[in-house]
Amino acid sequence: MDQWKWMEYHVLTDMPIKEIAAREGVTIDAVKGWERLAKRRLMNTA
Length: 46
Known about the structure:
Blueprint: H1 2-12, H2 17-24, H3 28-45
Protein name: DNA-directed RNA polymerase specialized sigma24 family protein
InterPro entries: RNA_pol_sigma_r3/r4-like
Keywords: DNA-directed RNA polymerase, Transcription
């Protein structure tokens, strides 16, 4: 699940979004989309 990748890379290991995109072979906008979806899911479960 892409949202988990964002959570693992950015939140847990403090990896910059640009580096996540390069590592996963996607655009920066795609990673930002993962971030939005992850945050939305977290807000809905609280």
